[in-house]
Specification:
At1g16640 B3 domain, seven-stranded mixed beta sheet, MvaI/BcnI family restriction endonuclease, 439 residues, 2 domains, hydrolase, 9 helices, Alpha-Beta Plaits, alpha+beta, nuclease, MvaI_BcnI
Length: 439
């Protein structure tokens, strides 16, 4: 029997948890009413899940506007891991909110006596593994785990309490990250490097070594679920010209999803480039480009003849009005050149961590070296709805770099690069909380 919080944390780690959260359950948090995970979509960046799909099930004769995503969910106890095959998330865009359901069905070992009732003081603990599994443990109000969790003021991420991986850890993951970044700042210049698969640091000479060098110093290796992270924090470096003004050299690339609709998807990149591309402006022969800035505030681009639109989102209320909405490049005749569905974009956005640290860096050569700055931007609780709001306002924009080399040959060389970017100063618009910390 799990008799303490320390034992539960040990059990979660034993089954692969790298992050552990808890939620104090309200009376309505039960198998009948589902478990409420927040009044926005920020929980999607904490709970790993599968593809988001529409649920057209009619209830009382009416089709409800909602979407679902499966969760690889297991209840854990001293007897092992027990799969709950029907567990998943439900997204309600009209409210908006996210709930978890199906966590008891098909699992005989599930804690039904706790999750079916409306008793006060119940606790749900969730462990997140590097592979994207979710481990669950439920306790009633009198259970030692629930009593211990209530007795301490834990850091909060949305509706979740953030628990440590080990009992007795006095410093939070944020504290440990800041201590590591402070240590790295004090190292001053660091040789460009990249962490090998076996965990050893290897020299790295290419010019994109700023992120690799920082990750190597933090001991970060890529995992199967999301981007490289440090105890649940996404860590991103950005180049600056000095550590006085911290002026970024370039905007932040948020994600690089390929279009899910339009001519680009239906007829191929070659046809898209034939219709909307243009000859290279610097005089490179036999090359066709597709570039420029595209946001919801601009008209038709002078070289490509397309503009960006968005359907299915109300910028005034900040709510999705149609889950089948999309971001679309259209021409003067409203032909869709390329589009990105909300569901496809959410799949990319939800891989971002709920917490991110943006670290400035300087570069010099020879030899290639990096120095990391004394001021760090910490952002917490990202949300796809904030992304859509920033996109509607023109802060987030599409900045492609697609090209066709040897365009007239039988085998042209097509290079795809669809990227969504934001100015560094607009990053806080994508999070509910942010702060600048001097190391």
């Amino acid at each position: 029997m799990v008799a303490s919080l320390a034992q539960l944390l040990d059990l979660m780690r034993h089954h692969g948890a790298t992050r552990i959260y808890a939620k104090n359950l309200a009376p309505n948090d039960n198998s009948k009413n589902q478990v409420y995970l927040g009044g926005d979509f920020s929980a999607l960046n904490i709970i790993p899940h599968g593809e988001i799909y529409s649920d057209d099930t009619a209830i009382a004769g009416a089709v409800r506007d909602r979407a679902k995503a499966r969760v690889s969910f297991f209840w854990v106890d001293e007897g092992g891991k027990h799969r709950a095959p029907d567990a998943g998330l439900i997204l309600y865009p009209k409210y908006p909110e996210v709930r978890m359901s199906g966590f008891l069905k098909g699992c005989r070992e599930a804690p039904s006596h706790i999750m079916r009732v409306r008793n006060e003081g119940r606790l749900l603990v969730l462990g997140i593994t590097a592979e994207g599994d979710v481990l669950g443990y439920a306790a009633d109000a009198a259970h030692p785990v629930a009593v211990e969790v209530r007795a301490y003021q834990w850091p909060m991420i949305g509706v979740f309490l953030e628990l440590p991986l080990h009992a007795g850890q006095a410093d939070s993951p944020k504290d440990r990250l800041l201590n590591e970044l402070r240590r790295i700042w004090r190292l001053n210049w660091i040789a460009s490097q990249k962490l090998a698969a076996d965990g050893t640091k290897q020299p790295y000479s290419a010019r994109n070594g700023g992120g690799y060098t920082l990750e190597a110093e933090l001991g970060i290796t890529p995992n199967g679920y999301a981007e490289p992270d440090f105890m649940g924090w996404e860590v991103k470096q950005y180049g600056v010209r000095d550590f006085v003004r911290f002026a970024p050299k370039s905007p932040v690339t948020l994600m690089t999803p390929e279009p899910t609709g339009g001519i680009y998807r239906d007829k191929g990149v070659a046809e898209f480039m034939r219709r909307f591309g243009y000859e290279d402006q610097s005089g490179k022969e036999d090359r066709i480009n597709f570039g420029g800035r595209y946001d919801c505030l601009r008209g038709l681009h002078g070289l490509t003849g397309v503009r960006m639109t968005m359907t299915g989102f109300d910028a005034q209320t900040g709510k999705i009005t149609n889950l089948d909405g999309a971001l679309s490049l259209i021409d003067a005749n409203d032909t869709v050149a390329a589009s990105w569905s909300f569901k496809g974009m959410m799949a990319h956005w939800n891989r971002k961590h709920a917490q991110a640290a943006y670290v400035p860096s300087l570069f010099r050569t020879p030899p290639p070296e990096y120095s990391y700055g004394p001021s760090v931007l910490l952002c917490e609780q990202t949300d796809f709805l904030l992304f859509l709001k920033a996109f509607a306002a023109g802060s987030v924009y599409y900045d492609p770099a697609i090209k066709v080399e040897n365009a007239s040959s039988a085998k042209p060389n097509i290079k795809r690069r669809s990227q969504f970017r934001v100015a560094h100063g607009d990053l806080p618009k994508l999070y509910h909380l942010h702060e600048f910390v001097r190391l």
